């Protein structure tokens, strides 16, 4: 009888006691283990209370009665050989602290607290049940295996629950699992139980890991049953996951957890039947004292008794000439603790040994609560875990799992859905690392995995696709001949060249007429030739830039335009000289005749040739890939090489054009029929206007449009020259031949 509390009989612990009795009787009848020595025992009820457990420990340490039995079957010594205790971690800790001072070994069948592996505090403690240090790790791996990263956690407010949960939380953190809440409670705290139940009801986590004793789970399930709550996937520890008294809570269907493996002990199920009066129907007994199914925890009691017996055997028995001799009068003192460390045996298929911490090898069954055909919950084994197997082969499954609500699909429990490729995770302020926002990758960056922590830049010649999950080669842009814009410019370029050639043909056909001869036919033909080259040089700007095309386009442009302006300048000077020559007493024409005109054109052109040569030799233009103008594409263009060289070429053309324009302005008031100064003025005005607007347009135009602007400037200025200088004369030659006479040309207004 319990002196402090009144409880109903705990059928499971009663079965443990009878299992111990069965094992002791089996050992006493053995001729191999402790021959001629009978083991005695005392059974104390701790009433699941630490004070009672401590009182019993002191009684055992004091030796109790000096004589157990009065016959010769038992030792007369009051020395306690060992203790099988306790059915919980907290009372086991209390007992170990008491009997440890007397070097009495303690072997527990249920105490799983990892704290008991500390040999400095509990040097006499051993156990046949795996430590929670193993269970916590495998539970965390189980949660990770099914992809749950957002869970709730509850535990008993005891050494078993608190230490087990601490180990689990540490293992879960290593696996990247986040815990929404972690609450401890005791079955004697109704307000705390209600609080925990409310946590579970409001939780966004669908998976609840429970490191609790059976008593706590019973009262918690009863509280949850009073008010319907959303379905939860329960993950249980070995203490309650196989308890048949909890199977009536059908809303926990699908619960999984690790349990002590099922096993059979021969005849143990029938040995305690003498406690019944013979009239009971054992199939209808509603408790777990009588079980027709294989045993779990009882096997651990069986192993504990045999472990102590083997330790005693090591101390008191010797073997000589294949004969075992055991001295039952030998005082064992503290030798059993040392002997237990050496225990290593196999009995009825069960292997028993202890490591340096007094722990046994961790072996678990993965069990699942499934409904049978009648709708009742049954515990089925769906997998195994054996820590003695090689790494990554410890766990395997052999049966499908039924999840919460009887579903076959693995439930999902995450704080935030996985971030798809093309985004990266940004932690939410004040929340665990599993709670984050999915932010699209910045421009130019990608992520090609789910739940990426960061995005990374594509290589310089690549750019992300629309969803930013892969890099693709950037399109290369240049003014291709296949583009509409390039075709239009090419048509105008060829058309302008044809127009210049056609004009030259008209002038050549009418070369003897006054209007052609009066306009210095030699310079006119040279000007038409240079204009033809100006039109054609624009074609070198179309197409993919190459090393030679980059050099050719700028050199040809610079030289042909200087040749063109030089011819116009020569014509302007000829007009001025011709007018001065008509003045009385003037002989200026001999100073600027055809030889001087040719030398002038050659000199001005040679200067440009010299500038271009220096530019091309020192730092010539070259093809390059422009990555800076556009981020998403590559501009293939001609780099200037030397900006000074480029602007020197343009500056020289501009200088000649301005000089020509000034001379033409000075000659604008000469008689209309005698000079073409007005047309030269207009042509230079157009030329200068085009190239003045070209500079800002060239600098600001992006990509291939820079080339298009340059071509447009070349064509516009060339058309301006040919239209202003030659269109009026061609009109007179072709449409007004009556004006193409010497009399008309020499007529002065």
From TrEMBL:
Top-level taxon = Eukaryota
Q: Recorded GO terms, molecular function?
A: G protein-coupled receptor activity
G-protein coupled receptors family 3 profile domain sequence ranges: 485-749
CC annotations in GO = plasma membrane
Question: What's its membrane topology?
Answer: Multi-pass membrane protein
Transmembrane intervals: 485-508, 523-544, 556-579, 599-618, 644-667, 679-699, 711-734
Claim: Signal is one of the keywords in the record: yes
- Grouped into one coarse class, the protein's main location is membrane
Q: Where in the cell is it found?
A: Cell membrane
**Protein family per UniProt:** Belongs to the G-protein coupled receptor 3 family.
Its name, as the record gives it, is G-protein coupled receptors family 3 profile domain-containing protein
Tell me the classification of the organism that encodes this protein. Answer: Eukaryota, Metazoa, Chordata, Craniata, Vertebrata
């Amino acid at each position: 009888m319990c002196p402090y509390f009144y409880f109903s009989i705990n059928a499971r612990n009663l079965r443990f006691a009878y299992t111990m009795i069965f094992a002791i009787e089996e050992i006493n009848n053995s001729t191999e283990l402790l021959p001629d020595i009978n083991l005695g025992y005392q059974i104390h009820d701790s009433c699941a209370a630490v004070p009672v457990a401590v009182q019993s420990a002191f009684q055992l340490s004091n030796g109790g009665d000096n004589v157990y039995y009065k016959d010769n079957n038992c030792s007369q010594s009051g020395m306690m050989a060992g203790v099988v205790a306790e059915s919980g971690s907290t009372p086991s800790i209390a007992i170990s602290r008491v009997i440890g001072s007397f070097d009495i070994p303690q072997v527990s069948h249920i105490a799983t607290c990892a704290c008991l592996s500390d040999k400095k505090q509990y040097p006499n403690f051993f156990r046949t049940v795996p430590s929670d240090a193993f269970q916590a790790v495998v539970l965390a791996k189980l949660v990770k295996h099914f992809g749950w990263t957002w869970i709730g956690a509850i535990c008993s407010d005891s050494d078993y629950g608190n230490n087990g949960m601490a180990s689990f939380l540490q293992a879960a953190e290593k696996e990247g699992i986040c815990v929404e809440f972690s609450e401890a409670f005791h079955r004697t705290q109704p307000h705390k139980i209600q609080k925990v139940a409310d946590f579970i009801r409001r939780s966004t986590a669908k998976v609840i890991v429970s490191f609790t004793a059976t008593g706590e789970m019973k009262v918690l399930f009863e509280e949850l049953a009073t008010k319907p709550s959303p379905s939860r996937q329960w993950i249980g520890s070995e203490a309650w996951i196989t308890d048949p008294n909890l199977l009536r809570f059908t809303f926990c269907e699908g619960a999984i957890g690790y349990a002590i493996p099922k096993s059979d002990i021969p005849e143990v199920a029938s040995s305690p039947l003498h406690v019944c009066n013979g009239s009971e129907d054992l199939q209808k007994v509603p408790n777990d004292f009588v079980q027709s199914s294989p045993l779990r925890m009882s096997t651990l009691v069986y192993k504990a008794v045999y472990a102590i017996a083997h330790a005693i055997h090591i101390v008191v028995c010797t073997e000589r000439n294949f004969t075992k001799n055991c001295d039952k009068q030998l005082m064992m003192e503290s030798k059993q603790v040392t002997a237990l460390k050496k225990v290593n045996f196999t009995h009825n298929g069960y292997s028993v040994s202890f490591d340096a911490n007094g722990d046994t090898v961790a072996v678990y069954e993965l069990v699942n609560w499934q409904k049978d055909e009648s709708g009742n919950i049954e515990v089925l084994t769906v997998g195994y875990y054996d820590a003695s197997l090689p790494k990554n082969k410890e766990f395997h499954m052999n049966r499908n799992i039924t999840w919460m609500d009887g579903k076959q699909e693995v439930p999902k429990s995450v704080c935030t859905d996985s971030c798809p490729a093309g985004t990266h995770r940004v932690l939410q302020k004040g929340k665990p690392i599993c709670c984050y926002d999915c932010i699209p990758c910045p421009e130019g960056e990608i992520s090609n995995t789910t739940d990426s922590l960061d995005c990374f830049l594509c290589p310089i010649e690549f750019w992300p696709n629309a969803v930013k999950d892969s890099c693709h080669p950037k399109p290369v842009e240049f003014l291709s001949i296949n583009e509409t814009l390039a075709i239009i410019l090419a048509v105008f370029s060829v058309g302008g060249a044809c127009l210049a050639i056609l004009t030259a043909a008209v002038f050549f056909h009418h070369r003897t007429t006054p209007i052609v001869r009066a306009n210095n036919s030699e310079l006119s033909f040279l000007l038409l030739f240079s204009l033809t080259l100006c039109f054609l040089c624009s074609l070198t700007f179309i197409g993919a830039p190459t090393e030679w095309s980059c050099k050719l386009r700028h050199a040809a442009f610079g030289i042909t335009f200087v040749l063109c302006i030089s011819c116009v300048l020569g014509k302007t000077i000829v007009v001025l000289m011709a007018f001065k020559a008509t003045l009385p007493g003037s002989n200026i024409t001999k100073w600027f005749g055809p030889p001087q005109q040719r030398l002038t054109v050659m000199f001005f052109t040679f200067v440009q040739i010299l500038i271009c040569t220096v530019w091309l030799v020192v730092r010539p233009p070259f093809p390059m890939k422009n990555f800076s103008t556009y981020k998403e594409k590559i501009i293939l263009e001609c780099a200037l090489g030397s900006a000074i060289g480029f602007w020197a070429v343009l500056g020289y053309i501009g200088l000649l054009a301005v000089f020509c324009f000034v001379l033409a302005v000075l000659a604008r008031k000469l008689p209309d029929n005698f000079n073409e100064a007005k047309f030269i003025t207009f042509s230079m005005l157009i030329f200068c206007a085009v190239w003045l607007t070209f500079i800002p347009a060239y600098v600001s135009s992006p990509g291939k449009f820079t080339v298009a602007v340059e071509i447009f400037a070349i064509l516009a200025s060339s058309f301006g020259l040919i239209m202003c200088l030659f269109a009026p004369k061609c009109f007179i030659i072709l449409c007004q031949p009556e004006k193409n006479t010497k009399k008309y040309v020499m007529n002065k207004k």
